[in-house]
Amino acid sequence: MRVLIADDHPVVRHGLKQILAVDPELTVVGEATNGTEALELARRLAWDVAIFDYSMPGRSGLDLLKEIKREFPERPVLILSIYPEELHATRVLKAGGAGYINKQSASEELTAAIRKVVSGGKYVSPALAEKLAFDTISDAQQPPHDTLSDREYRVMWLIASGKQIHEIAKELFVSPSTVSTYRARILKKLSVATNAELVRYAIRHRLIA
């Protein structure tokens, strides 16, 4: 199975290759340092499954996932993140991701996850599977943050995590005024007036660790 990986940290990419090297049926055919580079490699190389970091600068793993699924709808993509799955996994799966793995458990779970998604399955923990089932039952009670676009959700999460406007602009490769526009939309959709209220909302809904 040919694997494409993308992560902006060299140490993480090296660690992923070490984990995958244990399985003789897995071969890393390309590694990218950001979303743009990963998309170029995906178009140029032959691959069977991709592993993308959730929080890359510029085009995030979620943005990249959507692009990949548009161009290669049949190929599975796993999203890897340092953040607990309850924060972002549901959004990843709704965007077409085949699974979400916390980096801390990658050494134990990654090869099994790859085998499952390559065979057409989805990789989720039992706790997340239970949450998804509950969310399906209670869809009528959709919380306001579920109405945010993926970019608005990311900006909301970065603000709630303590990032300043200029820091978010630098991470997303956009202007500070663009981030301010997103912020205004987010505050309106969440019915909050200040960053402090946004942080309280995020904590109440367990959107930040």
What is the number of E strands? 5
CATH fold group of the largest domain: Rossmann fold
Tell me, rounded to a whole number, the average pLDDT.
89
- Please outline the major beta sheet: 5 strands, parallel
Number of helical regions: 10
Report on this model:
This protein is α/β, with parallel strands linked by helices and 209 residues long. It folds into 2 domains: 136 residues, Response regulator (Rossmann fold); 63 residues, Arc Repressor Mutant, subunit A, CATH 1.10.10.10. A 5-stranded parallel beta sheet has the order 2-1-3-4-5, with helices on both faces. Strand 3, helix 3 and strand 4 form a beta-alpha-beta unit. Helix 7 packs across helix 10 and helix 8 crosses helix 9. It is globular and about 55 Å long. The mean pLDDT is 89.
Properties at a glance:
alpha/beta, globular, 209 residues, Arc Repressor Mutant, subunit A, Rossmann fold, 54% helix, 10 helices, 2 domains, five-stranded parallel beta sheet
